[in-house]
Specification:
single chain, 98 residues, two-stranded antiparallel ribbon
């Protein structure tokens, strides 16, 4: 399983450990991923995604999974999240017609 957020696309970053004597050694900064159950209001389903804690705060700020996905760019989303976004757009497109 890759260490990448399914909603924001955040992955590991690279930097240095710097000792007291200023010796630099490579290290990786891993994102704080946690599994989350997210409810889609339009689809009426719950989805389990592996997202960062920062993405979880952004979801609360934007008002849930549906507004977040509609505003997110397709390049950042994982294939699973992209599939949910397509389902959401299809569901919202058929509602005004009904």
């Amino acid at each position: 399983m890759s260490r990448r957020c399914e909603l924001t696309g955040v992955g590991p970053l690279v930097g240095h450990n710097v000792s007291h004597s200023n010796i630099k050694t490579k290290r990786r900064f891993l994102p704080a991923l946690s599994p989350a159950s997210l409810q889609s209001d339009a689809l009426g389903q719950t989805f389990r995604l592996r997202i960062t804690n920062a993405a979880l705060r952004t979801l609360d700020f934007r008002g849930g999974l549906d507004p977040f996905l509609l505003k997110a760019s397709d390049e950042d989303l994982s294939p699973r999240a992209l599939k949910i976004k397509r389902q959401l757009k299809a569901k919202l497109a058929e509602q005004p017609a009904a």
